[in-house]
Amino acid sequence: MAVGVFDSGLGGLTVFDAATKRLPDVPFVYYGDNAHAPYGVRDAQDVFELTEQAVNRLWDHGCNLVILACNTASAAALRRLQEAGVPEGKRVLGVFVPLIEALTEREWGDNSPPREVAVRDVALFATPATVASRAFQRELAFRAIGVDVEAQACGGVVDAIEDGDMILAEALVRSHVDALKRKMPNPEAAILGCTHYPLMENIFQDALGGDVKVFSQANLVADSLADYLERRPEMRGPDVEPVMLTTGDPQRVSDKATQFLRRKIEFIAA
């Protein structure tokens, strides 16, 4: 057994890095669909089909649990995958849940009616596909009332990060924050709804201002995964060797991932 972590590219490495540090005894298999990245500009059907292929590959590799460490895949594919059914003893989870748990201060298993929460005005920064899906707003509505979510599609940010152009990425983040503030001048909280964005968290915070609480995903997902595995220990195990898989060029992806995490990362062909 092992835990699979899937992303269209390098962004999921932020979740992978946090999860491996939080759970050093758990074997992880990372699958990056770098050949088809980014997903954020693809239509929902395309994202679903690519995500389904990746998840099936991780099942074949011995994973019992797969984390979609990609907000676009979580938005466009997770519900369809779950409704279609997964193999017995397998589970696939997304990355919205830990964010919504943190924002609403209520556990996912709390099925009481929606109620008012501490924040009213929330900014959501995400890829165009995630924004178009309205998946975050839909899931939030099951648990909270009276929350105004203003979404900003952050075109170009993922591409700049993947290309290693952090100067361009910073300029784009500041531009997108300015655009959001024209629609919602005084957000109380901000959701970084893409697993690439933790790398730019300080820039988002600076552009938004110190009085805005910024929710980022990597550590929230890692903590949620640790809690899940404590309750479902059958989903973990030592039987599979950790490995990093990519549909792209392994050497190129390895070089970028090493730069991305500032430690040696080696991918092999999926």
Keywords:
270 residues, alpha/beta, Rossmann fold, 2 domains, 44% helix
Describe the structure.
It is a single chain. It contains twelve helices and twelve strands. The mean pLDDT is 92. Helix 1 crosses helix 11, helix 5 packs across helix 11 and helix 9 runs parallel beside helix 10. Helix content is 44%, strand content 19%. The chain folds into two domains: 144 residues, Rossmann fold (3-Layer(aba) Sandwich), CATH 3.40.50.1860; 120 residues, Rossmann fold. The relative contact order is 0.19. By secondary structure, the chain is α/β, with parallel strands linked by helices. Strands 4-3-1-2-11-12 form a six-stranded parallel beta sheet, with helices on both faces.
The global form is: globular
Helix and strand content put the structural class at alpha/beta
The CATH topology of the largest domain corresponds to Rossmann fold
SS element count, helices: 12
- Determine the strand fraction and express it as a percent band: 15-25%
Structural Rg: 18 Å
Order of helices and strands: EHEHEHHEHEEHHEEHHEHEHEHE
Proportion in helices: 40-55%
CATH class of the largest domain: Alpha Beta
Adjacency order of strands in the biggest sheet: 4-3-1-2-11-12
**Poorly predicted residue ranges:** none
The average pLDDT is: 92
Total beta strand runs = 12
Would you identify the CATH architecture of the largest domain? 3-Layer(aba) Sandwich
How many angstroms does the end-to-end distance come to? 18 Å
Q: Kindly give the count of domains.
A: 2
